Predict the 3D structure of the following.
Amino acid sequence: MFLRARPLEFEALKPIVVLNKSDADDLGVKALDRVELLFNRLKINAIVNISQRMMPAGEIGLYGSVQEKLKANFGDNIKVLAADRPESLSYIRKRMSGRSLSSGELRKIIEDVVGQALSEIEITSFVISLYNHGMSSREAAALSMAMARTGKTLHFPGRRIFDKHSIGGVPGDKTSMLLVPTVAAAGLTIPKTSSRSITSPAGTADRVECLCPVTLSIPEIRRVVQKTNGCMAWGGAVDLAPADDIFIQIEYPLAIDPLLLPSVMSKKKAVSADFLVIDIPTGRAVKIKSIEEAQELGRSFVELGKKLGIRVDCVSSFGEQPIGYGIGPALEAREALTTALTGKGPRDLIEKVSHLASVLFDFNRNRNSKQKAMDIIRNGKMGKKFLEIIEAQGGNPRIKPEDLPVGDKVVKIKSNRNGKVFWFNNASIARIAREAGAPKDKGAGILLHKKLNDKVRKGETLFEIYAEKNYKLDRALELSKELNIIGIGKDYEMVLAEIPEEEEHRKYFILER
Amino acid sequence: MFLRARPLEFEALKPIVVLNKSDADDLGVKALDRVELLFNRLKINAIVNISQRMMPAGEIGLYGSVQEKLKANFGDNIKVLAADRPESLSYIRKRMSGRSLSSGELRKIIEDVVGQALSEIEITSFVISLYNHGMSSREAAALSMAMARTGKTLHFPGRRIFDKHSIGGVPGDKTSMLLVPTVAAAGLTIPKTSSRSITSPAGTADRVECLCPVTLSIPEIRRVVQKTNGCMAWGGAVDLAPADDIFIQIEYPLAIDPLLLPSVMSKKKAVSADFLVIDIPTGRAVKIKSIEEAQELGRSFVELGKKLGIRVDCVSSFGEQPIGYGIGPALEAREALTTALTGKGPRDLIEKVSHLASVLFDFNRNRNSKQKAMDIIRNGKMGKKFLEIIEAQGGNPRIKPEDLPVGDKVVKIKSNRNGKVFWFNNASIARIAREAGAPKDKGAGILLHKKLNDKVRKGETLFEIYAEKNYKLDRALELSKELNIIGIGKDYEMVLAEIPEEEEHRKYFILER
């Protein structure tokens, strides 16, 4: 059947065409069936949407991506044929019934996810089949490989590659920013790619961007790493394991994360990692609540790593309060820069950086790894490397912490009693910092004045909220009155606080990767 | 935040708005989050899509339904606020984790499905949670009630309502067309609503439409039923249990049917049925393969009926060949009309109609129910009632079978050997009839010349393919050469035929309801 092209003012991830009901009936296709389009010696497959009203009979509506691929203009005659559904759909159905899939079947699914041949309904079904029936380590390995191979990859011939990943959930965690220069200063290669925030006040890419560009191409990453042994680039700019980004769009509204393991490991495989340390923050207010859970997750990562040729070590770290004092891109970048330049900083931050570095040094069979890491941090080598990387990525190597602009709308939150700090609520801290504008407004966030076990006097400042815009400061302040983010009490006091009930569907931070 | 309206040339089931990434970040919302829109004293919630390219900052793209509800034109200032996700989403997540839901929670989900407050990803997740974890009869009852109550309903005060449903899958099944007048002629009330074909060559609504209008409003249905005791209306025109239509759109590409029971029973509840006979065609080529399966499904329907106040009786009927000889809307309508007018017709058709009618008569405590049904069919009362209903729905009561146009492109398929008919493949028959143009081309389809156990001589016609268009006849003929639809053999012959392998993902007929 020939239909006249009608380009639609519309952008979509999938190749969608819109047919009039009558033409669809003639072709024998229904909504979400597939058609083959032929025009100008080009041939593509598209997913059918059907309209009763908007599309006249004899015409075919082309979404942006379809029009671009076909190079068709208004009124062009497109040959349209009914097409079979992608083969991968039968594998998805097989997985839904609880049967496991071969590597080849999983690869076909991932290829069709990346190739935009599957609809949202179909991808959702796949994600949920993994959520429901779990995933064997063989399947996880096959998925990781398929996800890595359907995207760009980084190679550094002749170098052994070290890498780090955090399961996330702790606000203010600027560990990676200091770990990369510590490890690189020791002569190891660590081409770190990081994500931007999904639901947290800042991702590592957001933090580093206060100091230098993070949107690097693959040749730029290679150049920076060859020069400095390390980099701190935004992973989203280099299209590593793009299937993962599509899965995250499905998982986010459902707050499920069945692809956590392949998601993390596919990105590590894509950068050719040989050695990997994974930080698993553990505690009440993060995803992993207990050391037992952390151990179970950690063992799964180690096992998957073996199948992928990556040596993995996992660390369960204390996750019940923010790392350091600053929360929000610029406040965190300031704190990291100060720590790098002086070799001194918040004890928990220094401790976490040096421990994770020591795990990577152990892979390298270094002796006294922990001491070695502390030395590099304190003797200025880490700071020097930090500035080198900033410069190589296009930033100013003479930048000072006070050069980093932070929000000029500030409010202090004070204690209404004497006591000591008993607990923090990480999820509430993240929500308030985001309400203040983070991560979009880089200068917005929270600056803590107190941490766990610190003594507090009535009237003393507990924390400050920073914002760039008054209305956002107001919103954040209002929210901070609703949510308890910090608990002050006296020793032996048993009732810690009246904790307001949070609605279940606001807890989205589990997807931070 | 205020954004300028930009109506989009776009129709969608959901209330979707498109935001520029930067505005979305300022609002703190992501793709598939919700916003509240205020304009002109109107307030509606919408689902967020995000565009980097197509939507300029400061503007908000409105899909058709949003624009209509808000009555906003290009450039109008819309107040936009971040909104919570619908409460029902947390119930969907609860169900995904395997926990069962209360009636109130299920009702909220159905309300939000019908109210278009949930995205495709979210509805898919709900459907699959039912597929994976099954459904208790309590949940099935709650869903049925919620699905019935969120749509239109039919009431006939003072009348006891009789109804029939078929699980489907048998081509040429024109039973309902003759059952309704048989039952109505006995003085019982049977306001039958039927679906159009989804994947079969004809639904009952498609067949009846060859004789009279089927798109009736609720007052029209009431008038027809008050006059004749029965009707044969298209259910899709009266918005009974609209949630079901939305679920079917999700289930169709996945070829799953977890909502079968609530789907059927919600529509019956919506027409206030008191007594219901359910036909479960059973055999190799239909959904239910064995009598044991049919019994299990039947028991579920009976149990669910008890909870809903509907008395249900299920019949497992022979499903291994088409009913009668005609397949396709007009060919089937001709056969039904001939049978109605003469009281004579294919034995399997007469047998099926009279048996299902006798089940309804039994509910009414009639004696000799089967004989009574046969009498009504044979003594002309059924035919008279058939024409009465046709006339009441706006058709011509003097219509003759030969007045019904069938396709004038016809090809005969002949036997290449002597023997007898051993088997039919219903799924292949449906595919060929659809390829010939059914149900869209009402005159297209297949006319069988032989049925099971009939003797066949080499060169005799096995069946004819009818089409209205030459290219469709060609396509159907080509497909009929690929697919074996009829097996001819000799007694004691063990190899029936070489059956070509069908691709798994073409078997979609299970959703026919």
Notes: Chain B touches chain A through 48 residues (CB under 8 Å). Residues 502-510 of chain B have pLDDT under 50 and may be disordered. Residues 414 and 461 of chain B are 4 Å apart (CA to CA).
